[in-house]
Amino acid sequence: MNNFQKYRLSCTLTFGDxxxxxxxxxxxxxxxxxxxxxxxxxxxxxxxxxxxxxxVVLSLPFxxxxxxxxxxxxxxxxxxxxNEEEEVEMSAPGQQAATSMG
Length: 102
Description:
This protein is mainly alpha-helical. It has a domain at 20-82. It contains four helices and two strands. A two-stranded antiparallel sheet has the order 1-2. It is rod-shaped.
């Protein structure tokens, strides 16, 4: 009952992983603004504002979903061997002293 397995969480996400998603979303937003400006010059100004708002509001959940799934795909859970943990603690004595002081 006392031999609990210890785990280490590490995030391997880099900016390059979400950079493409941000670029695609910006393209969608700018295209919707361009379409809205094209409609704005005609007599359908209310439709232009509605079209821009609709595209932005409908694209935000997809952007959030892609960010969250990308983040969850880059979280690694690995088990920590008790012997390995002792070696890490012994190899960093300065860090051990600093944490025990404060």
